[in-house]
Amino acid sequence: MLQLAVDTALEAGRFLKMNIGKIKQIEHKHGEERNLVTEIDKKAEQLIIDKIKKRYPHHDFLGEESGSHKAVSDYKWIIDPLDGTTNFTHGLRIFCTSIALEYKGDVILGAIYDPSSDELFTAEKNKGAYLNNRKIQVSQTNRLMESLVVTGFPYDISVNPYNAVQHFSNVLMECQAVRRLGSAALDLSYVACGRFDGFWEVTLNAWDMAAGVLIVQEAGGKFTNFKGFPSDIYTPNVLATNGLIHNQIVEVLKKGMKEKM
Ligand code: IPD
Ligand code: CA
Ligand code: CA
Predict the structure, then answer these.
(1) Ligand nearest, relative to CA of residue 206
(2) What is the model's pTM?
(3) Residue 261 pLDDT
């Protein structure tokens, strides 16, 4: 199953790469000005689902573009065909394909492929995390002030209730630097391989994080909600770090939290 996820992520990722700069149709999702979808997102998702369905016709699927397929199966494939759509529409080569597989509610494998750098991040539950087949580990940085961290902003930033900008400015004051790449799946992959020491974001969806969170955990990192409590991929506010700076970020996030969380 991991091999199928990998083969499919590679194929979809190459399809994205071939089509950068060739977008014909850009639509807005949920009536949100900033939330874009192109025909390439949709075609990539169809390609992924078709390929997996050929092998596993009775599995369930949750895809960003086609929603929940609601099959009765213990297996559910969770797919973000193009994570980083805004970058993609601007010709900025920071985007990837993310595929995860859930079994009885637990994510058991994930594959994230970035066709621009030809980097493939993979993990299987209890079997470690890999970048292009070499084992990866989170960083050893244990002070937030020495940490390079990353975040993202939700499309509904102007009405989102979770103080994303406040958190950004609070963390910025307490760490070495903050980045914003525009692909949550790559943000998480980079935490897993030690390029970043931590990542947080409000209002993510399961498809943005399913593969990435498993990859971080299998690389020795920690994944919780903003309060530092155990979380799952259906909880929108995400904190994933190398583990060592986790409590320090939780303390900073607390300052920006209103009761709502
Ligand atoms: C988005 C990216 C971005 C994050 C947004 C996501 P999409 O996914 O992961 O980094 O900040 O919250 O929605 O729309 O490009 O698949
Ligand atoms: Ca996404
Ligand atoms: Ca997407």
Answers:
(1) 2
(2) 0.97
(3) 46
pLDDT at 259: 46
Atom of ligand 1 nearest to the CA of 36: 14
Residue 257 or 248, more confident = 248
Distance 96 CA to ligand 2 centre (A): 9
CATH of the domain at 51: 3.30.540.10
Q: In whole numbers, what is the pLDDT of the chain averaged over residues?
A: 96
* Residue 149 backbone phi and psi in degrees, to 5: -120, 165
For 64-74, the pLDDT digits (tens) are 999 998 788 99
- Give the burial string for 233-249 (b: 16+ CB within 10 Å, else e): beebbbbbbbbbbbebb
Q: Concatenated DSSP letters for 188-226? A: HHHHHTTS-SEEEESS--HHHHHHHHHHHHHTT-EEE-T
Contact (Cβ atoms closer than 8 angstroms) between residue 227 and residue 250: yes
Q: Are 55 and 28 in the same domain?
A: yes
Residues 109 and 197 placed together within one structural domain of the fold: no
Give the three-class secondary structure for 131. Answer: strand
Show the ligand 1 pocket: residues with CB < 6 angstroms. 80, 83-85, 152-154, 182-184, 201, 204, 208
> Do 9 and 81 fall into the same domain?
yes
CA of 49 to the centre of ligand 1 (A): 20
Q: Are 45 and 79 in contact (CB under 8 A)?
A: yes
pLDDT tens digits for 183-198?
A: 999 999 999 999 999 9
